[in-house]
Automatic annotation (TrEMBL):
Residues of the Nudix hydrolase domain: 30-158
Keywords tagged on the record: Hydrolase
CDD domains recorded: NUDIX_Hydrolase (cd18876)
Record bears the keyword Hydrolase: yes
Entry GO MF terms: hydrolase activity
UniProt protein name: NUDIX hydrolase
InterPro entries referenced in this protein's UniProt entry, alphabetically: NUDIX_hydrolase-like_dom_sf, NUDIX_hydrolase_CS, NUDIX_hydrolase_dom
UniProt superkingdom: Bacteria
Lineage: Bacteria, Bacillati, Actinomycetota, Actinomycetes, Micromonosporales
Length: 174
């Protein structure tokens, strides 16, 4: 959905709420929201980006902007990071990760970016990335939590289920 398509929904919601006790909303926790795309090639390798600001590979994607839906944030970030304007398919995994070091805790969405032909031209974003890599998950140099999240995403591709995780661990009953 495009954000402007929400205008009718906003109208149905009525006037924004006022705080009965000013300042309460400002004291509430604020989580970061991130979206990434699981993009594969016909051989089953995953497209990873090589960030210049952290030591491990990551999925194409990034932080969702204020007022931006996670799916559109994913599409925008993929376009900005690797130059692909792909349709973002269904949601595969929602995962919460705790804050560590300079990063706040996050709710991370992994969307299905589909399978693209081998040799598709990619344009890594110069100011954030040093390159891209096609890797099989088993051999990719990723953090253990991302490996767990991607294992769940691959399971979601196979089963058609959307999975809910915390720190890459499937919640019981999911």
């Amino acid at each position: 959905m495009e954000p402007e398509m929400f205008s009718d929904d906003f109208a149905l919601e009525g006037e924004p709420e006022r705080e009965f006790h000013p300042g309460i909303a400002g004291r509430m926790a604020h989580k970061t929201v991130a979206s990434g795309a699981l993009i594969r090639d016909p051989d089953g390798r995953i497209l990873f980006v090589v960030p210049n600001y952290k030591p491990y590979l990551d999925l194409p994607g990034g932080i969702v902007e204020t007022g931006e839906p996670p799916s559109l944030g994913c599409r925008r970030e993929v376009r900005e990071e690797v130059g692909l304007d792909l349709p973002i398919h269904r949601l595969l995994v929602v995962d919460w990760t705790p804050g560590r070091g300079p990063w706040s805790d996050q709710v991370q969405f992994v969307f299905d970016g589909g399978v693209i032909p081998a040799g598709t031209p990619l344009r890594p974003q110069d100011d954030e990335l040093t390159g891209v890599r096609w890797e099989y998950l088993e051999s990719a140099d990723v953090r253990p939590s991302l490996r767990r999240r991607l294992e769940l995403a691959m399971r979601a591709v196979e089963t058609g289920a959307t999975l809910h995780a915390e720190f890459g661990h499937l919640l019981s009953g999911a």
